[in-house]
């Protein structure tokens, strides 16, 4: 059985989730999608599949792993363990007149 749920839920208010814009960049979303498509691979193979520099991909993998969006299997291959990533943001309370 997988140690991960099917969904990664990131919840918080605007201040708590603001760093997500710096973490989940368009290139990193592309990486997440590619990993879901191809399954577990080495970082070098992922860089090749994306047509990107190994060092940059490695850094992106490490950052996404910090946020639990990417994991490594027992052989060190990286993968996305979720079928869905959900961002739930609580907006500030509405001021009344």
Compile the SSE list and pairings.
Layout: E1 7-13, H1 14-17, H2 20-23, H3 26-38, H4 43-50, H5 54-66, E2 71-72, E3 78-79, E4 84-90
Can you summarize this structure?
The protein is 43% helix and 19% strand.
Using only CA atoms, what is the Rg?
16 Å
Shape: elongated
**Could you tell me the strand content as a percent range?**
15-25%
Number of strands: 4
Count of alpha and pi helical runs? 5
- Helix share of residues? 40-55%
Largest sheet: 2 strands, parallel
Low-confidence stretches: none
Provide the succession of SSEs.
EHHHHHEEE
SS-based class: alpha+beta
- Mean model confidence by pLDDT: 88
Strand order of the largest sheet: 1-4
N- to C-terminal distance: 53 Å
Please name the defining characteristics of this protein.
about 100 residues; alpha+beta; two-stranded parallel sheet; two-stranded antiparallel sheet
Report what the structure shows.
This protein has helices at 14-17, 20-23, 26-38, 43-50, 54-66; strands spanning 7-13, 71-72, 78-79, 84-90. A two-stranded parallel sheet has the order 1-4. It has a two-stranded antiparallel sheet with strand order 2-3. The mean pLDDT is 88. It has 97 residues and is α+β, with helices and mostly antiparallel strands. It is elongated, with a radius of gyration of 16 Å. A hairpin with a 5-residue loop joins strand 2 and strand 3. Helix 4 crosses helix 5. The termini are far apart.
């Amino acid at each position: 059985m997988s140690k991960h749920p099917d969904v990664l839920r990131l919840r918080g208010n605007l201040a708590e989730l603001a760093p997500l814009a710096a973490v989940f960049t368009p290139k990193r979303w592309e990486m997440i999608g590619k990993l879901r498509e191809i399954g577990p691979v080495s970082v070098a193979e992922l860089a090749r599949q994306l047509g990107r520099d190994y060092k940059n991909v490695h850094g992106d993998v490490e950052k996404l792993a910090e946020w639990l969006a990417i994991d490594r299997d027992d052989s060190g291959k990286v993968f996305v363990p979720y079928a869905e990533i959900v961002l739930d943001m609580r907006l500030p309370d509405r001021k009344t007149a």
